[in-house]
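User: I'm curious what two different proteins look like when written out as structure tokens. Can you demonstrate?

Assistant: Sure. I'll show them one after the other, since each token string lines up with its own sequence. Here's the first protein:
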Amino acid sequence: MMKNALSKLPRLRPLALWSIVLFSSWGGHVVAADVAKSSAERLAELRNEARSYEHGEGVTRNPAKAVELYCIAAKHGDSEAQYNLGWIYANGRGIPRDDSVAAYFFDMAAKQGDQPARRMLAQVGEPSSKRPTCLTQLDTFDFDSNGSDIVAKAAPDHRKVMEMVMKLAPHYGVYPRLAMAVIRAESNFNPAAVSPKNAQGLMQLIPETAERFNVKKPFDPEQNIRGGLAYLRWLLAYFKGDVALVAAAYNAGEGAVNKYAGIPPYAETQGYVKRIREIFKRDEHPFDPSITSPSPEYQRIANRRLM
């Protein structure tokens, strides 16, 4: 029988989706230190993203997604993720309660010296003899939100743009990898690019968008990137972190996405979304809900996907 300990909240640590990035103040701007992530830092990022889905902090609450992400971190030895999974299964938080699976994860953490996990293990009984399915599956642990793998393969002139993106993007709450994917699809890193519709610069800002996000010099690489990042930040909030909708809106406009309640039936836009997803590799991205209210059509879009 479960004791009162299980009615308590799990150990909560400050949510820090950007804890892997070091910041310093310079010249009135926040600049991200360009540092390579260690495995521990990547695990911390994964665990924090899982926690955001567990508690609905900055994203729509999604217990199944939280378990999926925690499982990846747990498989690669993160004791906090192991403990949190044990707590979720022990309490049936959004998923069916299973004491034996909870015990399996508490046992994993306890073997790494986690004392709270040892105490919880005594409450839930014997661990399952079968390894939880999620621990046997292939995962995306090697996902690099900074896009370091893209930078490593880039031509020198492209790399200069990418390094600027890596410095600026965290200030806007945007993964550099997503911004790089957009720049590649929009201009292929050409700061002088102009489209037939007069979209300009690296992130192909049309004059209306440039004005909307206070870009005075669209062919200035830094101004253009800042404007594009501001627009991506807005779109991420507007479409609640849905990468496919954000990509479609960046290409065709948020009005078109709302009109068709999803990705518009334009060959160009559908191809564009595919290219972004191939580079970014994830369906969702953390977002700041304080930036704007979600699309009035978002729920209709979500309902259509469930049909």
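Here's a second, unrelated protein for contrast:
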Amino acid sequence: MRSATSRALTTKPEVKRYYPTPALEKGLDILELFANTPEGLTVSEVARRLNRTMSEIFRMLLCLEQRGYLAQSANKDRYHLTLRLFRLAQEHPPTKRMVTEALPIMHWLAHELRQSCHLGVLDGGHVVILAQVDSPESTGFYVKMGSKVDLMHAATGHVILAHQSADACERAIHEWSLETKKKKPADLDGHLVKIRARGYERRASYEVTGIINISFPVLNSQGNAVAGLTVPYVKRIEDTVSIPQVIVALHKASQQISEALGALPEAEARAKKRGAGKTTAGKAKK
């Protein structure tokens, strides 16, 4: 009789099973294609890009339209993605909870600073705006809820990257590279180190002249960033709110949202970090 050890050594490694689901894969291919084509597509364009027949694509588009994921343009010649996927994402419990916790604090922040603010999360190579609150002033600047911004062109994205684990940060950058076919900016690592040391991001907008984006991380119970809270600061004539005031209020708001999501109060988090550092140093001496 062979021993258990012998049997274990001769056991074949488990092979991952793959069960083809052509219809599901086809539908997902279509949704992903439309997600990357905001101007919409005709039936023939979808068929050509996915290398499918017109008839099978037409049936899939009709099904997706009936389910509310796609809609036709006014002249009925093109389809485009609706907000149904975005609404589904918002219904995902962690996301919904974060927005629920954040909105009252964001309304306070907008009223306090007389500036708009928005909450963004990473989605592949982009930042998606989950929530947004307008300035109470008659003039101002805001980023539309649901909009997507290139990860490398967003203060929100940079502050999230700077406050994640090294592995999570590298995965996000890798996804961005795959989507954009671009190499990681040469100065990115150094830039993220500066953000992490400062605790927030402050820089001129990549897209709009005259806007200073100030962004703080929203942390989870592990101390990693799950979102970024940003104020696109606009200096108005006779404005009494300064950038240092924005930084103080934004810091307070981001900390309140973080604590609502389970993060430690900042003082406790610092004390815990110092304690971990002393323990490591003690072990090294031994």
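A detail about the second structure: The radius of gyration is 24 Å.
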